[in-house]
Write a structure and sequence with these properties.
Structural class: mainly alpha
Strand content: under 5%
Radius of gyration: 31 Å
Largest sheet: 2 strands, antiparallel
Distance between the termini: 16 Å
Oligomer: single chain
Helix content: 55-70%
Strand order of the largest sheet: 1-2
Order of helices and strands: HHHHHHHEEHHHHEHHHEHHHHHH
């Protein structure tokens, strides 16, 4: 670890080794060389004077990149692609003359970007599925555990712990759909030339349109893709980057929603994120158990959501067939968006896997509010016993206000049941009223909704992808 220069916390603290490799220099430049091999093979197969010996020489040096030569050359020519063409040629003297034949810099730069983003999306997909798997198990386990629901963060009609988790899970499932769609649309640039017209290949193949039509499909197949983009300028449309980062931003928004709910629940002491034996919550207040992982999820997610503006603005401001004001931005916004979402998903897996539910605290909070929520049922029971609905409604409204005042202004416990029992208009005793205070009577169809959602929506997805489930996330700090 270098201590005398800036290093990204995304690499040092948050992102996994797998995601860091995808955006590493080795991955980038090895992919450049694989693309040069694919181009040379394609040109040979279509009739250009390229030998098997030249191809084999190129293949032999795909992975052992002579960085020192490339770095020195770039200092002289100020062009990264041509520096690596030169360095590759130093290692492959027989093939030197056919490296990058007919191509422009975007042939390696843009195709590599698509390949790297596609691999990164696939890793995101695996981790997103594992978040969904953990949430599905949690929702199923607690599908019948009554808890206070909140609207406007004010106590509302009860729900269940599992039903609330299903709301988080549903948003991640929507992200999963979006991610799959974007993955299905990823296409290579192919080899389109300096302004996308393939003019250089007209020259190379003496105007043979049939051969030129085969170049992009052949390159795509060699690189593991179904197709190349049908038309382009010098680059693939930067709208592709916008679509990709929007998927990441969507996942970040879902993660933020979940983590914020967990933070609020931890304040209520109802649900807590994992807290390790030797973990310190506060440097000054030794008793504290801060929801630091959920806070980190929210913090990194905010970065990803804002980062999605970068490719959107870049896409909007490209001039004609190509400008270079995208390059420096892409070097930052794309890798860092992926590194951040990778860290976010690892945190989500870790947090959901270790969530602690304090059922006694949940019940205590529920019972403190339940008398207010049960007033409709109490009133109906009194009507059945012969009471007047309009009179009872006014009585229960007045008693509710009295009980609420005692709770808010005097700090007393909720005594609404005692007030109702003492009112002859209701004709109900205290024990009889208390028997109606069973939380499970007030959760509606919560448990059933969770069961159906998991059965019909989530489990088919997890079943289809069971080979990638079971990932456990390592949290660095």
């Amino acid at each position: 670890m270098s201590t005398d220069r800036y290093s990204s916390p995304l690499s040092e603290r948050y992102a996994s080794k797998e995601m860091q490799y995808i955006f590493s220099q080795d991955k980038k430049f090895r992919t450049w060389r694989r693309l040069w091999v694919a181009l040379a093979e394609t040109e040979k197969e279509l009739g250009l004077d390229i030998t098997d010996e030249q191809i084999e020489e190129l293949k032999a040096h795909v992975d052992d990149i002579n960085y020192d030569v490339a770095i020195q050359r770039e200092k002289e020519v100020r062009h990264d692609v041509m520096s690596h063409v030169y360095a590759y040629g130093v290692q492959c003297p027989k093939a030197k003359g056919i490296i990058h034949l007919g191509a422009t810099s975007c042939y390696v730069g843009d195709n590599t970007d698509i390949i790297i983003m596609t691999e990164a999306l696939k890793l995101v997909r695996v981790k997103l599925l594992n978040v969904m798997n953990e949430l599905a198990a949690f929702a199923d386990k607690y599908k019948s555990q009554p808890t206070l629901a909140f609207t406007h963060f004010q106590p509302a009609q009860p729900t269940t712990v599992g039903k609330r988790a299903s709301l988080w899970l549903n948003e991640f499932a929507m992200d999963y759909e979006d991610l799959n769609y974007v993955l299905s649309t990823m296409k290579l640039l192919g080899s389109k030339g300096t302004t996308g017209t393939q003019a250089s290949f007209l020259e190379l193949f003496a105007g043979d349109e049939e051969k030129i039509d085969r170049i992009d499909p052949m390159i795509a197949e060699k690189m593991g893709f179904d197709a190349c983009v049908p038309v382009s300028g010098q680059t693939y449309s930067r709208k592709t980057d916008t679509r990709v980062l929007n998927v990441l931003a969507g996942i970040a928004a879902s993660a933020t929603k979940m983590s914020n709910d967990i933070r609020l629940l931890q304040h209520l002491k109802e649900v807590e994120e994992p807290f390790e034996k030797n973990q310190i919550g506060s440097s000054a207040m030794a008793y504290k158990r801060n929801p630091m992982r959920s806070e980190r999820i929210a913090s990194l997610s905010r970065y990803v959501i804002i980062d999605a503006l970068n490719p959107a603005i870049t896409s909007a401001t490209q001039w004609f067939e190509r400008t270079l004001d995208d390059s420096a931005n892409k070097r930052l916004s794309i890798p860092e968006g992926f590194l951040a979402i990778d860290g976010i998903l690892d945190l989500c897996i870790n947090v959901v896997d270790g969530l602690v539910v304090h059922d006694k605290v949940i019940k205590k909070h529920m019972m403190a509010e339940l008398p207010f929520m049960a007033t409709e049922n109490i009133m109906m029971d009194a009507v059945k016993a012969g009471g007047d609905r309009q009179e009872l409604h006014e009585r229960i409204r007045t008693l509710s206000m009295e009980a609420g005042k005692a709770v808010k202004e005097e700090g007393k416990d909720n005594n609404l049941l005692e007030l109702i029992a003492a009112d002859d208009a209701f004709g109900l005793g205290l024990e009889e009223l208390k028997e109606t205070m069973e939380p499970s009577k007030f959760i509606g169809r919560s448990a059933r909704q969770v069961e159906v959602f998991l059965r019909d929506v989530i489990r088919p997805i997890l079943k289809e992808n069971e080979d990638v489930l079971g990932v456990k996330a390592d949290i660095n700090v």
